[in-house]
Design a protein that fits this description.
The protein is mostly helical. It has a domain of about 150 residues. It is about 80% helix and about 0% strand. A two-stranded antiparallel sheet has the order 1-2.
Length: about 230
């Protein structure tokens, strides 16, 4: 995961790599911010309608920040938005509706199964893996293309969507009572983000041995959760 490749590279490529590293560091800082806001809002034991508005608000602000950044770069490079962007947005809407319908059907189906690994008992794990699988395939593809910056951005971007947007939308309709594992989950997210931030800032890459440690810790986390 070398965001800053070792060895000699062309001056233009080196500049691009440095910009990518700064963008990734900013995105990682956003993970700290969003996670911290969620923790602060949940200290009273619940997340309600007002908390949901706050979470959705910071998500929209972050998206506005990205849109302005794109428009600013277009002005600098004397470019304009292409009409195919509307086609992309249309496909995004269609995909979103299809994802919602399919996941809703799967959750309803699994909820009716009383026993076994694929059952309502493990619906949290199963739905989580269902969301992670497309990202895993994306990581494999861009890992093969040697684009660690895209792998990082796609995974960190999930934190910007899942934490403020998805949790916030749910709070608009239903109050969330903070579960017992909330603090542990917050600590895991912050710890992992801090680890990635350190290596990206210090050496511009995530060493292979650290990747193995993270995989082992994730396996232990899954094993503990399923056994309990």
């Amino acid at each position: 995961m070398a965001v800053i490749p070792s060895g000699k590279v062309r001056k233009t490529a080196a500049r691009t790599h440095r910009i990518n590293r700064l963008s990734l560091l900013l995105t990682t800082v956003a993970v700290f911010f969003f996670t911290g806001v969620l923790w602060a809002l949940g200290r009273d034991g619940t997340l309600d309608f007002g908390d949901g508005l706050v979470l959705i608000g910071i998500f929209l602000f972050w998206q506005c920040f990205h849109i302005i950044d794109v428009l600013k770069n277009n002005v600098i490079k004397n470019r304009s938005l292409h009409w195919t962007l509307l086609v992309d947005l249309g496909l995004l809407v269609v995909g979103t509706v299809g994802l919602y319908l399919s996941v809703d059907w799967l959750v309803e189906w699994v909820s009716k199964i009383e026993a076994g690994f694929i059952s309502r008992e493990h619906i949290g794990w199963l739905s989580g893996w269902l969301m992670v699988l497309p990202n895993a395939l994306l990581a494999l593809y861009y890992g093969w293309r040697n684009r660690p910056d895209i792998v990082y951005s796609s995974q960190l971007g999930d934190g910007h969507i899942c934490i403020p947007l998805c949790v916030g939308i749910f709070c608009l309709f239903n109050k969330i009572h903070i579960p017992s594992f909330f603090e542990a989950g917050i600590a895991i997210i912050l710890g992992a983000a801090a680890l990635h931030f350190f290596f990206i800032a210090a050496i511009g890459r995530l060493p292979r041995w650290v990747g193995w440690i993270l995989l082992i810790l994730y396996s232990a986390f899954v094993y503990t959760g399923l056994v309990e």
